[in-house]
Structures are given as C-alpha cells and as structure tokens.
Amino acid sequence: MISISEMTPYQVLHIEAEGAASLPIERAALATVGATLIGAGTSEPAAMIAAAQDADVILSECSITLTRSILTQLPRCQAVVMYAIGLDHADLAAATEQGIIIAHTPGFCMDEVSNHALLFVLACARKLRQLDRAVRDGWWPNVRNLEVELLPMGSLRGQRLGLLSFGAIARSLAGKAQALGLHVAAYDPYVDQALFHQHAVEPASLNEIIERSDYLSIHTPLTPGSYHLIGEAQLRRMKPTAFLINTSRGAIVDEAALICALQAGWIAGAALDVFEQEPPAPDNPLLALENVIVTPHTAYCSDAAYVRVRQMAAAEAVRVLRGEWPLALANPAVKGQSRMEKKLAQRLEERQ
Questions:
Q1: Is residue 181 helix, strand or coil?
Q2: CA of 72: how far to CAs of 45, 104, 329, in Å?
Q3: Residue pLDDT, tens place only, 294-344
C-alpha cells in the first residue's frame, strides 16, 4: 500500500452539497488523505457529469440515479459512495464494467427504520389516524358508540407480524415486536435457518407470510426480482383485517393494486414511508384514503443517524483513496479490474 505522503492530491465530489463548508464531517475525514472536497450542488445529470470530470471519488445522497450513461462519462472516478442502504440508485453492472467501485452505508439507520416500522404497527393497531381525526372533529367515545366506532381493534399480543426479508433492520424490529407480545415470522430465502432460530423467529414461505400475517412489514431491497413483489394476487390473499407496512422501497408494492385493495377492503389498511413516485403526486389516491398512514420517506432520520451516515461514507471514501477496499462493497465483481487497483499498480511501477 502506498503511504499517504506519496499520494498526489485527490478530489472528492459531493453531488448534492453546494460546497465543502456544509460537510464538516466529510471534510475532516478526507483531509487525512489530502483530498479536496467540493460540492456540485445539483442532481441534474449533465451538470453533475461536468462537475465530476476530475473527481476521484463521488459522494451521493441518492438524489440522482447513476445510470450506465452517467457512469461511462466519469473518466477519473475510482468509486462512488452512496449515503444509503439500498442499491437501486446505481447501475452496478455498468459500474463494474467501468472499473468503478460502488460502496454504501448499510446499518446507519437500523434502529431508526425498525422503530418507524414498529410505530406503524402500533398506529395501525390502535387506529391512531382515525382517533386523532375524530377528536379534532369533536367526537368523543361513550358506551353507545364505542363498539361501533372503535372495534375491532387488535391488542397486538398474540397477533402475527410477518417480515418480508430478514436483514438487520427486520431482525431489529423482530426483537422490539416480540417484547410487545407479537408472534414474528419471516420470509428470506437467502438467510441461514440458524439465524431465524437465534432470534426466535419462525421461518415461513412467502405465501405463508402473506396469508397469515396480521401486519406484513416489507424490508427487502428493491431489485429486478422484488419489483412489484406485492401485487394484486398477493394482496387478495392477505387477511381482510391485515395491514401492509412499507419502510423499504415503494416499487416493491404495485401501487395501483394496493389502492384497489384498500378501496375494496381486501386489507384493513396500510402504513407507507415510501412510494413508487417520490414525492407522490398530490392527487395520489393513497393520500386521501382514511385507512392509510403516510410519512415522507423519513424512517431513516435521526440526529445520530445523520452523523453516522456521514462518518461511514467519508470513511469508505478514505479507504478507497488509500488503496483499500471499502467495508460495504456493493459490486465485488469489480475486484481485479477496478480503477483503484490500476492506479496503485501504476504508482508502484513509477517507483521502480
């Protein structure tokens, strides 16, 4: 590995930021390898590409999808580091072909997202949206209208939470839900069975999760295989008393089918932090339905998570500039053909 003193100056571009002054965490970390941090202040592709021509590393908060067309126009870029868990904002195959490393920041908001999903479970179970609206409209329960207006209302204990995927966020949610007396089951064909037993979670098939859950919580990443994984057929098989919860990616659910399901009563309700189109159109029916709770893709948000994701992204950029592999490498197939390796080899050759 080449020492820091032997490195030529590096340039790191942050796509969204207007300048380095707004990025003290990243600036301090990158200074340790002599890297200059600049901000493009744009998510417009042509402007971003122009700003990135001299960038060795690009930091992205995912306001722009890094398509094949964009990636082929970044001549100097060794790596892109995304402030994200999901990998749907970069063409991994194209990046690998170009020798560009893609890194991301899994785990930075594990507690935040699992808390948000649990918030949705509780809000659905306790009819929070309806009760809040009722009080504001002047309604107050009495013996005669209590049963008509509030019941049925689940007690949670003994009910079933189904997890679609069993990654770190889902595992975090499982423990919190079990503390409330929920029975937890999960579907994830990529997870070792021992992990289910370790967390006292019942392994189940996709159909079992869909058909038996009182609350179906989605945690799978968005991939070509998970696009519209929950569609009309799956929604029709859910319990009419069940709730769908999505804190992952909007396109995992066929939104048109979900609207039908909610309007027709195939399911009791939904709680959504994500949409197929973000922000959703003002006339999106989901925003007007009484049996839907919505938040603006903020499940990840907290003061601690904000600091954590910036520290993680900066550390990954520093690793690449030092000639090291990032801890969260999204495209391992790039090994052996990466620009980082080629630059290291070139410098070693120059020293001889």
A1: coil
A2: 12, 20, 20
A3: 999 999 999 999 999 999 999 999 999 999 999 999 999 999 999 999 999
Mean pLDDT, the chain, rounded, equals 94
The DSSP annotation for 233-296 comes to: HHHHHS-TT-EEEE-S-GGGB-HHHHHHHHHHTSSSEEEES--SSSSPPTT-GGGT-TTEEE--
CB-CB contact of 190 with 170 (8 Å): no
How far is residue 130's CA from residue 250's CA, in Å, rounded to a whole number?
24
Query: Is the preceding omega at residue 279 within 30 degrees of 0, hence cis?
Result: yes
- Enumerate domains of the chain plus CATH numbers: 4-108+303-351 (3.40.50.720), 110-294 (3.40.50.720)
By the 8 A CB rule, do 228 and 254 touch?
Answer: yes
- pTM exceeding the 0.85 threshold for the entire prediction: yes
- Contact 300/307 with Cβ under 8 angstroms? no
* Catalytic site positions: 249, 278, 297
H or E element, residue 101: strand 101-103
**In the block, which residue shows the tokens 């990046």?**
95
Tokens of 9: 């100056």
